[in-house]
What we know:
This protein is of the alpha+beta class. It has helices spanning about 30-40, 75-85, 95-100, 105-115, 115-120, 130-134, and strands spanning about 5-15, 15-20, 25-30, 55-65, 70-75. It has a five-stranded antiparallel sheet. A hairpin with a 2-residue loop joins strand 2 and strand 3. The chain is globular and about 45 Å long. It starts with a strand and ends with a helix.
Amino acid sequence: MIEYIKGILTELNPTEAVIEAAGVGYGIAITLPGYSALVGIEVESQKSKVESEEVKLFITEIIREDVHEVYGFVTKAERQLFELLLTVSGVGAATARMIMSAFSAEELRMLIATGNAKAMAKVKGLGPKTAQRI
């Protein structure tokens, strides 16, 4: 399992970051809060390599027969929350990422702690029953 990837940010958009580490560019799916945290860092193509800042994303890998997906998070706590969401019946990686993009990690913890399924069900693709299970 990959714990984290640390390298130069070469591409960034709201759903994906590309980090070059040891000559390999890793395409990593990110959440909107992750994008917001990375958006202030200029990508390598805009700066000389010497001046470029290294970034570090904590990784969750989803490996199945037909796909190998890599999800990145700015903090370990965000990654842990994502992995906990994956344990809920009916919540896959895409849905978990949508939930993590709709709320900050702290807001999501509060919604879960208070059992606020109504607010959680407002996330696109998340029905009321799955929101209750979360």
